[in-house]
Amino acid sequence: ELDVQMSKDGHLVIIHDEQINRTTNGKGYVKDLTLNELLGLDAGGWFSSNFIGEGLPSLQLVLEWLLEEGNDLTLNIELKNDIIAYEGMERKVLDLIDRYQLQDRVIISSFNAPSLKKVKAINPNISVGYLIAGVKQDAIKVARDIGADAIHCQPSFALSTYGRDAIEKGFPLRVYTVNERAVKEQLVETGVEVIMTDVPEQLK
Predict the structure, then answer these.
(1) pTM surpassing 0.85?
(2) Which of 11, 51, 142, 171 could pair with 35 as two cysteines, CB 3.0-4.6 Å apart?
């Protein structure tokens, strides 16, 4: 799972925050910098001296990596357009996925329901996950309106009556971010489809 933002000159880059301040040696918004400016940042030094000089990857670079021999991962691309409305992001992401013929190995998710609806209008066959935080009571209604294939949620939703109802109505639940074994066991019993974790070796 990774997060996509868009540069000033319309390129897709992988970074969680709308601003570069927290995870690079730069300051400002992704949308205000060109791809070359973004690729020139140090995005590893804040984490560990072992990663000084590590840059931001572009989405194109990640998709090329997916095509390497022995790589059969499924990639969840989160469109980070719920705070900044990146014009045309949906089309750009889908065009790139199409160029590398990776439609069957990609899931698109976002908190932005109209954006996901646009994704489905452009490519009805791409897998889409409606992303929610907390216990959102109208999640099933919105997911149905989008044409979503699943709901991406927190444990609080998955373990609620709304979560159980979603599963019964045919919406698989993909749950983030689960790092405690006890919570994982509860979710497995509930019948969720996916558990997203930072510690796969511990929960496996």
Answers:
(1) yes
(2) 11
